[in-house]
């Protein structure tokens, strides 16, 4: 967690000197020195992408085919207007991906993702050789800034990464209560038919 806070503090010190101008803020964060980190880093049309990591299994152990892996990152919107991370993909390694809340809002000059929670979950592992120490080609698509492509490391859940939170589990669905079979209503006793008393005139 200490490394991720280092990224955040370094970015915040740069952001404090920024001023608005045109479509982006100037000076741009990508032109400044950044704190060292273990993840993938990039810059996409005014959005700084920092310390992108995928958490896999134990070092050297292959990951489970069809399994999932959380992805963490710090995003800093250096544009003049808010943006949004709308999708994530890792083609060739994972079938699908989910974003926290269905999408991640990126306000201007406010780092997002510096906490312990993952911003994305990669699901349906297809690469049988994937293990901690591998690298994955990841695509991050932003609503306005376009698509960034990064080479992201898969790291084991050790060292400072033990403080990271897992992807939240879906809420358990309550099982319907079994319905007791309805007891048949007792039939009312049959009334005897009245016997007519006939007479002749």
CATH architecture annotation? Sandwich
Helix content: under 10%
Helices, by number, come to: 1
Radius of gyration: 30 Å
The biggest beta sheet is recorded as: 9 strands, mixed
Full CATH superfamily name: PCu(A)C copper chaperone
Order of helices and strands: HEEEEEEEEEEE
| Portion in strands | 25-35%
Task: Decide which structural class fits the backbone.
Answer: mainly beta
| Number of strand segments | 11
CATH domain class name: Mainly Beta
Give the CA-CA distance, first to last residue: 113 Å
CATH topology: Immunoglobulin-like
Shape: elongated
Question: What is the mean predicted local confidence, pLDDT?
Answer: 80
Number of domains: 1
Flag low-confidence runs.
11-22
Organism: Planomonospora corallina
Protein name: Copper(I)-binding protein
Region (Disordered): 165-201
Keywords: Signal
Overview of this protein structure:
With 201 residues, the chain is mainly beta. Helices cover 7% and strands 34% of the residues. It has one helix and eleven strands; from the N terminus they run αβββββββββββ. Strands 3, 4, 5, 6, 7, 8, 9, 10 and 11 form a nine-stranded mixed sheet that branches. A hairpin with a 2-residue loop joins strand 3 (40-44) and strand 4. The radius of gyration is 30 Å and the shape is elongated. The model is unreliable at 11-22 (pLDDT under 50).
